[in-house]
Design goal:
Chain A is α/β, with parallel strands linked by helices. Chain A has two domains: 259 residues, Thiolase/Chalcone synthase (Peroxisomal Thiolase, Chain A, domain 1, 3-Layer(aba) Sandwich); 151 residues, Thiolase/Chalcone synthase (Peroxisomal Thiolase, Chain A, domain 1). Chain A contains 13 helices and 14 strands. In chain A, the strands form three sheets. Chain A has a ten-stranded mixed β-sheet with strand order 5-4-6-7-1-8-14-13-9-10, sandwiched between helices. Chain A has a two-stranded antiparallel sheet with strand order 2-3. Chain A has a two-stranded antiparallel ribbon with strand order 11-12. In chain A, strand 13 and strand 14 form a beta hairpin. By secondary structure, chain B is mainly α. Classes of the chains: A alpha/beta, B mainly alpha. Chains A and B meet through helix 2 of A and helix 1 and helix 2 of B.
């Protein structure tokens, strides 16, 4: 089987418009949460989110660096975030100027959980208030989930596989896992893989709040709201942004002398077959997903030093994931660290698995694991697990496990190691 | 420059993201300003909103340059 390595990283997040700014802020225990600014949230149960900051902010994002003004006007923000992250990743890999022959073997697998919800909402209002002849001609292709892959392939001339995963909050992890398999199966030599999301709009916040998924007890202290594993957690905080990695066949990367961040060695997927929003009461779906990734990786549990948890800060989900991790790791629990970076940037939904995979890679590169913020009072079941409360921790990280679980009972786990 | 021309050019700059100097009256939306057929549909909608006129599809198809748009709008006002 062909080996697959990561050679480029790109990111847009609530803590930065690029990878290094975000990482610096994550390690410094900053929070991206604040009162919602996109719309007036006064009448909403949840009035907070982790928004990507405007470009004049200390760690803001400038869409104009990589996305044409015209495209910015025509498409939803998740696509703009995705194009930016993909552009950064290609430049980081030194692959933003490939030959035609190389581009025939280079593709995209960048998905989203929800897609262009803000644009669907606003154009529906145009339709209702002004009639069908006022609906934008860019409405459809400005909202479709596969249009990050579409736009990026056009911008950079990538003629290989053009794909987009839609598996709710597992999207980012599935995208990377599926794209790695495309390279392993010889469908491509290079794949841009990841996920993006931007659903901080009235219908998005109202919908998730009605599903009882969002935190509502911390509207006056937004930075305290995302608190995975803490006894006072009460739901997730919506985030937005994008994460994209360049995956490359190992020999292809080695021959051109590319910087290699990590190797993707394990990928597991499973379904809960239980409930549309609630995880299986025994966490069995997540357990099987991790188990499959571990088996594929050929590693032993001793080799895994860091787990970036799904850990969304929901009462039920955190507990069940923790239980599944404890069952899987057993006696090896004491040597690994596990944290949830959603405590800092919120839940990026379809982007989560991708940005969190990047954090895993940076943890290996820098020998430091990011913290779980707001873990003031760990729940009973946290005993014996190093959840890296409050501050980042320096330690050797040789291999990492990243979990992502989504509505519909869809689970993905990725294992990567340094090489 | 007429008031119509000013307002048309402003809409073109905003929608197509081109520099104002490029939006001359002779400029072709597709050949000179990088528009595609859907961009023109969107521009026509913006003109209709801005000037309170209706531009039917057969008339819209004949609008190829900035001047075409200005002349059509002026003829309806």
């Amino acid at each position: 089987m062909r080996r697959v390595v990561v050679t480029g990283l790109g990111m847009v997040s609530p803590l930065g418009g690029d990878v290094e700014t975000t990482w610096k802020n994550i390690i410094a225990s900053k929070s991206g949460a604040a009162t919602i600014t996109r719309f007036d949230p006064t009448d909403y149960k949840c009035r907070i989110a982790c928004e990507v900051k405007p470009k004049d902010h200390e760690y803001g994002y400038d869409p104009g660096l990589d996305v044409d003004h015209k495209i910015q006007r025509q498409v939803d923000l998740f696509i703009v975030f995705g194009i930016s992250a993909a552009s950064q990743a290609l430049r980081d890999a030194g692959l933003d100027n490939m030959s035609e022959e190389e581009r025939l073997r280079a593709g995209c697998s960048i998905g989203s959980g929800i897609g262009g919800l803000p644009g669907i909402e606003s154009e529906s209002l145009v339709l209702a208030n002004k009639g069908p002849s006022r609906v934008s001609p860019h409405f459809v292709h400005g909202r479709l989930i596969n249009l990050i892959s579409g736009q990026v392939s056009i911008k950079y001339g990538l003629m290989g596989p053009n794909h987009a995963v839609v598996t709710a909050c597992s999207t980012g992890a599935h995208s990377i896992g599926d794209a790695a398999r495309m390279i392993a199966m010889d469908d491509a030599d290079v794949m841009l893989a990841g996920g993006a999301e931007s659903a901080i709009c009235p219908i998005g916040i109202a919908g998730f709040a009605q599903a009882r998924a969002l935190s509502t007890n911390f509207n006056d202290t937004p930075e305290k709201a995302s608190r995975p594993y803490d006894v006072n957690r009460d739901g997730f905080v919506m985030g937005e942004g994008a994460g994209v990695v360049v995956l490359e066949e190992y020999e292809h990367a080695r021959k051109r002398g590319a910087k290699i961040y990590a190797e993707v060695i394990g990928y597991g997927l499973s379904g809960d077959a239980y409930h549309v929003t609630a995880p299986h009461p025994e966490g069995s779906g997540g357990f099987r997903s991790m188990q499959m990734a571990l088996k594929k990786s050929g590693l032993s549990l001793d080799d895994i030093d860091y787990v970036n948890a799904h850990g969304t800060s929901t009462p039920l989900g955190d507990e069940l994931e923790l239980g599944a991790v404890k069952r899987l790791f057993g006696d090896h629990l004491s040597t690994m660290s596990m944290s949830s970076t959603k405590s800092a940037i919120g839940h990026l939904l379809g982007g989560a698995g991708a940005v969190e995979s990047i954090f895993c890679i940076l943890a290996m590169r820098d020998g430091i694991v990011p913290p779980t913020l707001n873990l003031d009072e760990p729940s009973e079941s946290c005993k014996g697990v190093d959840l890296v409360p409050h501050v980042a921790k320096e330690r050797k990280v040789r291999a990492v496990l990243n979990n992502s679980f989504g509505f519909g009972g869809t689970n993905a786990s990725l294992i990567m190691k340094a090489i | 420059m007429s008031e119509t021309a000013d307002r048309v050019k402003k809409i073109v700059v905003e929608h197509l993201g081109v520099e104002a100097e490029k939006v001359t009256e002779d400029a072709s939306f597709i050949d000179d300003l990088g528009a595609d057929s859907l961009d023109i549909v969107e521009l026509v909608m913006a003109f209709e909103e801005e000037f309170g006129v209706e531009i039917p599809d057969d008339a819209a198809e004949k609008i190829a340059t900035v001047k075409d748009a200005i002349d059509y709008i002026d003829s309806k006002q």
